[in-house]
Amino acid sequence: MSRDNAAAAEQKHDVFQAIADPTRRGLLRLLVDGEMPVNAISSHFPMTRPAVSKHLRILADAGLVKERKVGRETRYRMDADPLRELKSWLAFYERFWENKLDALRRYVETDEPNRGQEPSEL
Amino acid sequence: MSRDNAAAAEQKHDVFQAIADPTRRGLLRLLVDGEMPVNAISSHFPMTRPAVSKHLRILADAGLVKERKVGRETRYRMDADPLRELKSWLAFYERFWENKLDALRRYVETDEPNRGQEPSEL
DNA sequence: AAATTACGAAACCATTTGGTTTCCTTTTCT
DNA sequence: AGAAAAGGAAACCAAATGGTTTCGTAATTT
């Protein structure tokens, strides 16, 4: 369904790296409601316009932002779709904080935590 | 005893930065099932033991890993709890990757799109 | 036509990052 | 006691990151 069939090879920045920077998370928050040209965007951040532009490029590399040229301006908007990968990554770990009390109880009862539990794979 | 010591010190590395590196995500995956000493951990990664140690330090700064000294070895295990912050950050954006028909319906029904909770941080 | 606006590109810089090797201390094994 | 094992700490290095200023060019305004 996605229009990019060479998705794996072209991405220089992944979603994990893209959201690591607080400025970029701020950009996503700003662009989630609709598109905005670069000048308007950069007025929200304490840095120069080219700096914001570079962050936008990184977000675009990760697919988190789409751009559209309108006259002499470039408008950006967020695309939340790549966050699905983050969601599924997170989903794996959810049970480890939901069952924390269970884990504690198991620890106390057996007096031997993690018995026979070798991590199976990387 | 203590069920909440999170308010104590502001860490140098946050959870977003900690999971940005693929090696560190591999470490979490390895340590989620139980604790493991550093040598055993580093044997799973194509780098030297001190390099792995530094990654572990970063994870510990973010609270994602706990260490325990046992004899001459230091055993690490994952603590998934800080991932809750990531979860709540993500929760805000989840509605935006639901399919476009849902988004349109929400727009029409509420007459006020995209109003609601804010992400927990930038 | 000329000036202005919008913005990407490039050159440059300081700091951080991810890795290495070397060394030191503590603990365990013979 | 002496040797070996475990792992942290420090010095060092190349590359990536996050920022700047300057410049070029296409679109718009006057």
TrEMBL record, chains A, B:
<dbReference type="GO" id="GO:0003700">
    <property type="term" value="F:DNA-binding transcription factor activity"/>
</dbReference>
<dbReference type="InterPro" id="IPR036390">
    <property type="entry name" value="WH_DNA-bd_sf"/>
</dbReference>
<keyword id="KW-0804">Transcription</keyword>
<protein>
    <submittedName>
        <fullName>Winged helix-turn-helix transcriptional regulator</fullName>
    </submittedName>
</protein>
<dbReference type="InterPro" id="IPR011991">
    <property type="entry name" value="ArsR-like_HTH"/>
</dbReference>
<dbReference type="InterPro" id="IPR036388">
    <property type="entry name" value="WH-like_DNA-bd_sf"/>
</dbReference>
<dbReference type="InterPro" id="IPR051081">
    <property type="entry name" value="HTH_MetalResp_TranReg"/>
</dbReference>
<keyword id="KW-0805">Transcription regulation</keyword>
<dbReference type="InterPro" id="IPR001845">
    <property type="entry name" value="HTH_ArsR_DNA-bd_dom"/>
</dbReference>
<dbReference type="GO" id="GO:0003677">
    <property type="term" value="F:DNA binding"/>
</dbReference>
<feature type="domain" description="HTH arsR-type">
    <location>
        <begin position="4"/>
        <end position="98"/>
    </location>
</feature>
<dbReference type="Pfam" id="PF01022">
    <property type="entry name" value="HTH_5"/>
</dbReference>
<keyword id="KW-0238">DNA-binding</keyword>
